[in-house]
Protein backbone atom coordinates (compact mmCIF):
# COMPACT_ATOMS: atom_id res chain seq x y z
CA UNK A 1 0.00 0.00 0.00
CA UNK A 2 2.93 2.32 0.56
CA UNK A 3 3.93 2.12 -3.10
CA UNK A 4 0.50 3.32 -4.26
CA UNK A 5 0.87 6.42 -2.08
CA UNK A 6 4.25 7.11 -3.61
CA UNK A 7 2.78 6.55 -7.08
CA UNK A 8 -0.05 9.02 -6.42
CA UNK A 9 2.40 11.56 -5.05
CA UNK A 10 4.56 11.14 -8.17
CA UNK A 11 1.56 11.64 -10.46
CA UNK A 12 0.55 14.70 -8.45
CA UNK A 13 4.05 16.16 -8.74
CA UNK A 14 4.12 15.38 -12.48
CA UNK A 15 0.80 17.15 -13.09
CA UNK A 16 1.88 20.14 -11.02
CA UNK A 17 5.16 20.40 -12.96
CA UNK A 18 3.51 20.01 -16.36
CA UNK A 19 0.87 22.59 -15.42
CA UNK A 20 3.54 25.06 -14.32
CA UNK A 21 5.47 24.60 -17.58
CA UNK A 22 2.25 25.02 -19.62
CA UNK A 23 1.35 28.24 -17.80
CA UNK A 24 4.87 29.58 -18.15
CA UNK A 25 4.99 28.88 -21.90
CA UNK A 26 1.53 30.40 -22.40
CA UNK A 27 2.62 33.55 -20.56
CA UNK A 28 5.85 33.63 -22.59
CA UNK A 29 3.91 33.52 -25.89
CA UNK A 30 1.59 36.29 -24.69
CA UNK A 31 4.42 38.54 -23.53
CA UNK A 32 6.39 37.95 -26.74
CA UNK A 33 3.37 38.73 -28.93
CA UNK A 34 2.62 41.90 -26.98
CA UNK A 35 6.23 43.02 -27.12
CA UNK A 36 6.33 42.42 -30.88
CA UNK A 37 3.20 44.53 -31.41
CA UNK A 38 4.57 47.36 -29.25
CA UNK A 39 7.92 47.41 -31.04
CA UNK A 40 6.28 47.32 -34.49
CA UNK A 41 3.97 50.17 -33.51
CA UNK A 42 6.69 52.53 -32.27
CA UNK A 43 9.51 51.40 -34.59
CA UNK A 44 7.97 50.38 -37.94
CA UNK A 45 10.12 48.93 -40.68
CA UNK A 46 11.35 51.57 -43.12
CA UNK A 47 9.83 51.46 -46.59
CA UNK A 48 12.13 49.87 -49.15
CA UNK A 49 13.84 52.30 -51.50
CA UNK A 50 12.68 52.40 -55.09
CA UNK A 51 14.99 50.36 -57.32
CA UNK A 52 17.30 52.40 -59.49
CA UNK A 53 16.51 52.27 -63.20
CA UNK A 54 18.83 50.01 -65.13
CA UNK A 55 21.04 51.66 -67.68
CA UNK A 56 20.75 50.38 -71.22
CA UNK A 57 23.74 48.46 -72.53
CA UNK A 58 25.77 50.43 -75.04
CA UNK A 59 25.32 49.35 -78.64
CA UNK A 60 28.20 47.51 -80.25
CA UNK A 61 29.20 49.98 -82.94
CA UNK A 62 32.96 49.69 -83.08
CA UNK A 63 34.47 46.79 -84.95
CA UNK A 64 36.39 45.79 -81.81
CA UNK A 65 33.12 45.34 -79.90
CA UNK A 66 31.55 43.15 -82.56
CA UNK A 67 34.68 41.02 -82.72
CA UNK A 68 34.64 40.68 -78.94
CA UNK A 69 30.98 39.64 -78.94
CA UNK A 70 31.69 37.09 -81.68
CA UNK A 71 34.63 35.66 -79.72
CA UNK A 72 32.60 35.37 -76.54
CA UNK A 73 29.71 33.73 -78.40
CA UNK A 74 32.08 31.22 -80.00
CA UNK A 75 33.66 30.41 -76.62
CA UNK A 76 30.25 29.81 -75.05
CA UNK A 77 29.22 27.51 -77.93
CA UNK A 78 32.46 25.52 -77.60
CA UNK A 79 31.99 25.16 -73.86
CA UNK A 80 28.40 23.99 -74.24
CA UNK A 81 29.37 21.44 -76.90
CA UNK A 82 31.94 19.87 -74.55
CA UNK A 83 29.26 19.10 -71.98
TrEMBL record:
Keywords: Cell membrane, Ion transport, Membrane, Sodium, Sodium transport, Translocase, Transmembrane, Transmembrane helix, Transport. It is an enzyme of class 7 (translocase). Its cofactor is Na(+). It catalyses: oxaloacetate + 2 Na(+)(in) + H(+) = pyruvate + 2 Na(+)(out) + CO2. It comes from the Bacteria. InterPro entries: Na_pump_deCOase (IPR005899), OadG (IPR023424). The chain crosses the membrane at residues 12-31. The keyword Transmembrane applies. It is a single-pass membrane protein. Its EC number is 7.2.4.2. The keyword Cell membrane applies. It is found in: Cell membrane. Pfam families: OAD_gamma. Heterotrimer of an alpha, a beta and a gamma subunit. Belongs to the OadG family. Catalyzes the decarboxylation of oxaloacetate coupled to Na(+) translocation. This is Probable oxaloacetate decarboxylase gamma chain.
